[in-house]
Amino acid sequence: MYANGWIVTCDDAGTEYPSGWVLVEDGLVSAAGAGDEPEADARVDLDGAVVTPGLVNTHHHLYQTLTRARAQQADLFTWLRELYPAWSRIDAEAEYAAARTGLAELALSGCTTVFDHH
To answer: How far, in Å, CA of 18 to CA of 118, rounded?
Structure first.
């Protein structure tokens, strides 16, 4: 499958193609470029879209999605004292809901990879 649109690549030169294409094979980007479109089984028209590499979040605590609105104005140690008791009571169901919510929020912002510290 390939898609066309405004393409920004991850190469060392930071190449941009105002009218480019991305070739996807087995779920992975195998090529990107401009000019003649490659042969593919399917085509997705992304005219007007910007196609960029996914963002990578290297430090996250997905379970904290449930409590992030608490103690927002506190300094670090006040915040920790406020939230440690709440976090100690999180069960598997709450952790699952928090992770799904956090992952959805990350995906909506363009993040495709996350390293969770829980």
So the answer is: 41
